[in-house]
Amino acid sequence: MFDMMNMLGKVKEMQAKLKEAQDNLVKVQATGESGGGMVKVIVNGKKQVIKLDIDNDLLKPSDKEMLQDLIIAAMNKALEEVEEKAREELKKATQGTLPNIPGLDLGSMFS
Fold first, then answer.
1. Smaller CB count within 10 Å for the chain: N or C?
2. CATH top class, domain 2-96
3. pTM of the full predicted structure?
């Protein structure tokens, strides 16, 4: 019975740490670039685009399709990078709160 109460306390502690870590994901940032740095996208750990920078040389109507492709490529790079950073932040936040349970990967819960 005592072990069950102790485990419930650990679960509540982990939930609180996980919630705090999730709230802090807005501070985690990653940058993706394409076109040799002509397009840059910055995203946060909640997978929100927070900045888009486009080189003036790309702002020509005739380059619209290429620009769209470069933006998509930069966004995808930034999202891939921030996903890994966010997973690491969540893993650090919950480390040591619960025993290692085989098959329980907390980082994969948020991808």
1. N
2. alpha beta
3. 0.66
